[in-house]
Write a structure and sequence with these properties.
Blueprint (H helix, E strand, L loop, with lengths): L7 E8 L10 E7 L4 E2 L1 H14 L9 H8 L4 E2 H15 L7 E3 L7 E7 L3 H20 L6 H13 L3 H12 L4 E3 L9 E4 L6 E4 L2 E2 L4 H7 L2 H10 L7 E4 L2 H11 L3 E5 L9 E4 L2 H11 L6 E5 L4 E8 L2 E9 L2 E3 L6 H9 L4 E2 L6 E2 L5 H9 L13 E3 L11 E4 L6 H14 L3 E8 L12 E6 L13 H10 L12 E5 L6 H14 L4 E4 L4 E3 L2 E4 L5 H10 L5 E6 L1 H7 L8 E4 L9 H6 L4 E3 L4 H11 L7
Parallel strand pairs: 18-19, 24-28, 24-29, 25-28, 29-30
Antiparallel strand pairs: 1-2, 2-6, 3-4, 5-6, 7-8, 8-9, 9-10, 11-14, 12-13, 12-14, 15-16, 15-22, 16-21, 17-20, 22-23, 25-26, 26-27
Helix pairs in contact: 1-3, 1-4, 2-3, 3-4, 4-5, 6-14, 9-10, 15-19
């Protein structure tokens, strides 16, 4: 009897960019497969396991997984592993979709190449996909340890939804995208474009956002004070450092009031519709868990609206609704919440259109005040409020109101953004009817958010305007933020460094300052910036990031390109400095749209030919 084969990743290696197999960063691996094909039942178990990981349940599967689900015949287990590895990365926001799978050998070994965005995440995704496939074949419903390892790392490095959609929008416009950090509080720090044309964001905060405005909007009391000085409508409010001061402030304003931390985001610690001193004490205790002093504020009657302003122009408006459930006459409130959380649009904060509703002490207090408990059964059709504030991160929902915003309310939102000095912001407006002028009804601006979320995925007519509005603050129409990039292929012992120098001089003659790497050193124009860089991929990223450069030149030897791929996603020209080798480097030439040159007798003449081909003329 032949010994049973096992599931293993025998070896793997990553490519930094376009490579012989795929025109993108990729992971190449050889797998040992215990079973070479998956029938319908095994494939179904595998697809269920993938869906259990999915963060945004309403997201459609990528093309590889969709094809796997639609195939009526047994499929290759290698193809299934590749599809799942790619899909796991997509679930956590990486823009990947491609894989190439080789044939399975007699011993069950198979080579494959999968698109990746991050080498570590891609490697963990492949191992998780292999383990999930093995479990599906074995009929096991247990969650593989390899999947837990992948999810843990992917969650730590995941960007929020706003960053993911902005990156996707930039790619659609041909704007290069580069993550600048791999996790933690700076996971959403992203560079769009290259050199002096680059722009950077941190979620929806841009490199053009005012630091002064950021400091002011970080304080709820200073925001209101500043807006009041501009003659804009704001609620009455007082700062309170003790429960006694909060009670006194509420008495001076008149009940009901709102009590919230003086600083903070996400709606944490905010209690609205506070009606008496006992509720003031409870709300004060909740707010001071986040800041030592609190704001006691007039409760303005009306609906909560988020007005997204980009470049002084209103681009989207939504009405935010408090989390609530509607009774059916037989389900408890707890069961109604569970049913609402099953909505495919709900999921973790920052990763779904709507956030999962989670019962807590504040919810129980509100329910008790209104005569309910989590085990109460509301009559059919009875709406039960679960929150005092309409905050998305606390389970609220949104309705698009762009088409009905009164012109005065549009101008009010734009005036608030301009007055605060913010290029992109969310103005939170309390007003009963957004279609009626704020001059004719109660109204108040309660906050201005420097880093507004982009929770507009549910509105396909609105979402393109939002993306255009944000990216329009960074780049003019048709601008991709790129600079000319030339790759020199050759050895540092040969003529390649001289070709790099000639290209730098050629760019200088056209009035451009080139960042360069000559196989050893990094420089800007005629100055050397750092010596002794051994990794071309690291040097390539340094070239792209130089804030004064408006051209880039990179030397790579052919062996590195074949082993690690091109470290840039694309370039504008390739110069083969050592002669020959073009056949094996067709993927590099393809990344340059076929613009390749052989270094002739004169590097200067070759550099001039490159400049002419790129349409770069010396200034007159």
């Amino acid at each position: 009897m032949a010994p049973l084969r096992s599931w293993k990743v025998l070896w793997s290696e990553s490519f930094d960019g376009p490579n012989p197999a795929l025109p993108c960063p990729a992971l190449r691996a050889r797998l040992a497969l215990a079973v070479t094909g998956l029938g319908e039942k095994r494939r179904s178990r595998l697809l269920e396991a993938v869906d259990a990981v999915r963060l945004r349940r309403n997201d459609p599967p990528g093309p590889l997984l969709a094809a796997l689900a639609q195939d009526q015949l047994p499929v290759s287990s290698a193809a299934a592993i590749a599809a799942v590895a790619v899909e796991l990365q997509r679930i956590f926001g990486d823009a990947v979709s491609r894989a190439v799978v080789g044939s399975v050998g007699p011993s069950g070994e198979c080579d494959m190449v999968c698109e990746i965005e991050q080498a570590v995440i891609g490697s963990l995704a492949l191992r998780a996909a292999l383990a999930m496939t093995a479990h599906a074949v074995a009929g096991s419903r247990a969650r593989p340890e390899a999947l837990d390892a992948f999810v843990s790392r992917a969650e730590a490095q995941a960007r929020d939804h706003a960053t993911v959609v902005l990156m996707a929008g930039a790619r659609e416009r041909g704007i290069p995208v580069q993550r600048l950090h791999q996790g933690g509080r700076f996971a959403n720090h992203v560079r769009f474009g290259h050199g002096r044309f680059q722009r950077q964001i941190l979620s929806t905060i841009t490199d053009g956002s005012s630091a002064v405005a950021g400091a002011v909007t970080g304080s709820k009391s200073q925001t209101v004070t500043h807006l009041r000085r501009l003659g804009l409508p704001v609620p009455r409010q007082f700062l309170a450092a003790s429960a006694a001061e909060a009670r006194d402030a509420a008495s001076r304003i008149g009940y009901p009031v709102v009590i919230k931390p003086e600083r903070g985001t996400g709606g944490v610690g905010i209690t609205a519709d506070v009606r008496n001193e006992a509720e003031v004490d409870a709300a004060f205790a909740s707010a001071t868990r986040h800041t030592p002093s609190v704001v006691v504020e007039e409760l303005i009657p009306g609906e909560d609206h988020r007005m997204l302003v980009c470049g002084g122009r209103l681009v989207a408006a939504t009405q935010r609704c408090r989390a609530a459930v509607v009774g059916d006459g037989h389900s408890t409130i707890s069961e109604l919440i569970a049913a609402e959380n099953a909505n495919p649009r709900r999921g973790p904060a920052g990763r779904a259109d709507l956030v999962t509703i989670k019962p807590d002490a504040a919810m129980r207090m509100l329910l008790a005040r209104d005569g309910w408990g989590l085990q109460s059964v509301p009559p059919a059709g009875c709406s039960v409020l679960l929150r005092t504030t309409a905050n998305m991160k606390l389970g609220g929902s949104v309705v698009a109101v762009d088409d009905i915003v009164h012109p005065d309310n549009r101008r009010l939102s734009e005036a608030a953004a301009l007055g605060m000095g913010l290029d992109i912001c969310g103005v939170d407006l309390l007003i009963p009817d957004i279609a009626v002028s704020y001059l004719d009804q109660p109204c108040g601006i309660v906050e201005v958010n420097m880093n507004p979320g982009l929770a507009y995925g549910s509105f396909p007519d609105v979402f393109p305007r939002v993306i255009d509005g944000v990216l329009g603050q960074l780049f003019a129409d048709g601008d991709t933020g790129t600079m000319p990039l030339v790759v020199v292929v050759g050895s540092i012992e040969g003529r390649a460094p001289a070709m790099v120098a000639a290209l730098v001089q050629g760019f200088a003659r056209t009035g451009r300052c080139a960042a360069w790497f000559d196989g050893r050193d990094l420089g800007i124009g005629t100055a050397t910036q750092q010596r002794g860089i051994e990794d071309p991929a690291r040097a390539a990223d340094m070239v792209l990031g130089q804030p004064v450069a408006d051209a880039g030149v990179l030397l790579c030897d052919a062996a590195h390109l074949l082993r690690r791929g091109l470290p840039w996603q694309a370039c504008d020209a390739v110069v083969l400095a050592d002669g020959g080798g073009a056949d094996s480097l067709d993927f590099v030439i393809a990344a340059a749209s076929g613009r390749s040159f052989q270094l002739g007798e004169s590097p200067d003449a070759t550099a001039s030919a490159v400049m002419d081909t790129l349409g770069l003329a010396a200034p007159h």
